[in-house]
Amino acid sequence: MAHRSSIDPLFRGGVPVGIEEVLADRDERATLERRVLERHPDKALIVATLNIPGPIKYTPGLDDLFGSGADRLMAHFLDASIYEDRRRATGCTLFALTNEDPLSAKRRAVAFEDEDALGRLFDVDVLRAGCASALSRVGLGMLPRTCLVCDCPAKECARSRRHSLEELYGAIRRIYETALGGAADARA
Ligand SMILES: [Zn+2]
User: Enzyme class, one word (predicted)?
Assistant: First the structure.
C-alpha cells in the first residue's frame, strides 16, 4: 500500500500556532489563574493541559483525546468543580477547583499522570493562592516525567530534539489507541 499520509490522523485538521500566540495564551492563562485563586484562596486550582510537541496544538482528534482524559482525571477529584473547559487553537485546558489540600491534590495529579493510560499525555498542575508557581513533582520527591518515545527524562529529549515530530506523533497515537482499547482512528 502506498504511503499516502504525511501526518498522523490524530493531528489532521489543525492550524499551526506560532510562538507569539503560545506566549500570549500563557500570559492570559496566568492572569486567569491568579484571578481565580484570589477569589477562592481556600481552594487548590487544578490546571490540566495536553503535552503535545510541535506547532499543532488543537485538532478534532486531540479535542476527543483531551475530553476522555479530562473525564478520567476528574474521576480522581470527586469534590472538584470545573471552572472552565477551554478548547482553543493553542490547546485544550481544563481549570477545576478542589477543596483538597494542595499537596495531596498534586500527589493525586501525579498518580493520574503516571498510572492512567492517557495520563502520560497530560500535564496536570496544582496551584494555590499566594504561590506564583505550581507544585513540582521533583519538589515533592517524585520522579521527573519520562519521554513518550524512550525512557529518558522528557526534558533531555525535548532539549536535544532527539525524536522527530512523526516519531512523537506515532507514540501519542499508540498511547491513545491503547487507552481506548484500539477504538481510536488508526487509519493512516
Ligand atoms: Zn526520548
Answer: transferase
Q: Are 172 and 52 in contact (CB under 8 A)?
A: yes
Q: Tell me, in angstroms, the distance from the centre of ligand 1 to residue 157's CA.
A: 5
Distance CA 110, CA 113 (A): 5
* Domain 9-143 is found in CATH 3.30.70: yes
Spatial separation of the C-alpha atoms in residues 145 and 124, rounded to whole Å: 12
> 61 C-alpha to center of ligand 1: Å?
23
pTM check: above 0.70: yes
Distance between Cα 144 and ligand 1 center (Å): 13
pLDDT digits (tens, 9 = 90+) for 159-184: 999 999 999 999 999 999 999 885 55
Sheet order of strands, 44-50 included: 81-88, 91-98, 44-50, 122-128
C-alpha 168 – ligand 1 centre gap (Å): 9
Q: Where are the domains of the chain?
A: 9-143
Task: Name the nearest CA neighbour of 45 among 96, 89, 2.
Answer: 96
Q: Which is nearest to 175 in space by CA: 69, 48, 86, 74?
A: 69
Coil/strand/helix, residue 99:
coil
